[in-house]
Amino acid sequence: MTAVPMKWRIMTEADLPSVLAMADTVHPDFPEDEVVFANRLALDPNGCAVLEAQDGIKGYLVSHPWQFREPPSLNSLLTMPAAPSTFYIHDLALLPETRRSGAATVAVDMMAARARLMQLPNMTLVAVNNSVHFWQRHDFTIMRDSELDQKLQSYGDNARFMVRDLTQKRPLVKRKQGRNR
User: Fold this and answer.
1) Which of 35, 86, 126, 140 has the fewest C-beta atoms lying within 10 Å of its C-beta?
2) pLDDT tens digits, the chain, 181 residues: what are they?
3) What pTM was estimated for this model as a whole?
4) What domain range is 132 assigned to?
């Protein structure tokens, strides 16, 4: 089987119907309106991307600067904070056939670089759908306390607030590369 070439590109308004359809498929227990995705795109256009393949969009990333320890409620509209203190990953979703392709790592690394350029000390997210182990592989750690647990209620009982410190250098992982012949 030959791998289908895919690459991340900045999301546009024209991508929103495809993104919403994918969100409904990948996250059926966490529905959000199209206006929420449009809001996040307007909030930080460079924090939103789609994974494009020859036959269509295979994934998306929605992220933006935000306030530390203040995860937004599901399906809510936001305005940019005056002094953001974290880079928040709202959603990273891949269709099943693109998982384990390395695309998620590329997306997380892109946003870590963006957050560092913005001089934000960390990235945060709410892990759902039993994704804690995935995020731990990307250097996120769980942060729990009663105040945060209260803020996560709209995400369900298994939701976890997670943080990745960007002030420490992450060791480079040597990836195997195929040999050219």
Assistant:
1) 35
2) 445 689 999 999 999 999 999 999 999 889 999 999 999 999 999 999 999 999 999 999 999 999 999 999 999 999 999 999 999 999 999 998 888 889 999 999 999 999 999 999 999 999 998 999 999 999 999 999 899 999 998 898 899 999 999 998 655 554 443 433 3
3) 0.89
4) 6-165
Q: CA-CA distances (angstroms) from residue 51 to 27, 47, 67, 89?
A: 17, 13, 27, 16
In the chain, how many domains are there?
1
Q: Is residue 174 situated within a structural domain?
A: no
User: In Å, how far from its chain's centre is CA 178?
Assistant: 28
Contact between 52 and 6 (Cβ < 8 Å) = yes
In a domain, 115, yes or no: yes
Give the CATH number of the domain where residue 108 resides.
3.40.630.30
